[in-house]
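Supplementary notes for students who missed Thursday's class. We covered one full example, reproduced here. Read the sequence, then the structure, then the short commentary at the end.
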Amino acid sequence: MQSFVLACVAAIVVAAIAGFALNSVQKPVDEAYSTTAVRL
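Structure (token representation):
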């Protein structure tokens, strides 16, 4: 039972770190798809 709880906590920590990492890497859609000819 203790290993199951530890695995759940580890999964939550890994998911939280991945979420913060992806949010810092990704650009908003208005920056990612904007060119000189596009007006949003």
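Commentary. The radius of gyration is 18 Å. The helical segments are 2-25, 29-32. If anything here is unclear, bring it to office hours.
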